[in-house]
Amino acid sequence: MTISASTISTADHAEHSILFFCETFHAIKTEIGKMIVGQEAVVEGVLTALCAGGHVLLEGVPGLGKTMLVSAISRSVDLPFSRIQFTPDMMPADIQGASVLLENENGGHELTFQPGPIVSNLVLADEINRATPKTQSALLEVMQEKQVTVGKRTVKLDEPFCVMATQNPVDQEGTYPLPEAQLDRFLFKLEVGYPSEQDYHTIIDRTTSGLNIELKPVSNREELIRMRTIVRDVSVSEAAKAFAIKLVMGTQPHSQYASPSVNEFVSLGASPRGIQSLMLAAKVVALLDNRFEVMEQDIRKIAIPVLRHRMVLNFKAQATGQSADSLIKNLLSGF
Amino acid sequence: MQSTKASQTELQLNLLAQRGAAFFRRAAVSCHRHKAMDYACRALWVSPLLCVLLFLLPGFSVTAAIALLVMSLAIIPAGVYAFSLLFVGLTTKTTRKQSLALYDNQLGFKDDLQIADEFFQIKAPTGFEQAALASCRISVEKASNHELVPFPVRPHSLTRRQKVFGGLSLLLSVLVVITAMLRTEFPSVFSNPAEADITEFEEIVQSALSSTSTAPGRNRLSTSENHNARQSQHGPDATNPAQAEKSMESGDAAESGATTGSAGAAAAKAVPEKAQKNSELRIVTKLPPPLMARLTSENSQTDSGSQSDNSQAGPQQESQQADANSKDENKSASTDSNSAQQDEQQNQAGQPPAAPSGQQQAQRNNKKQDSGKKNGQQQQSSGSQQNSNSQNSNTQGDDAQKKSRGINQLMLAVPMEDQFIGTPGPGREKSITEKQPSEEKPMTETISASRGQTVQSAQVQQKPATQFWEKQMLSDFFQQQHQNSQHNENANDN
Question: Can you tell me where the transmembrane regions are (chain B) (predicted)?
Answer without folding.
Answer: 43-60, 66-90, 164-182
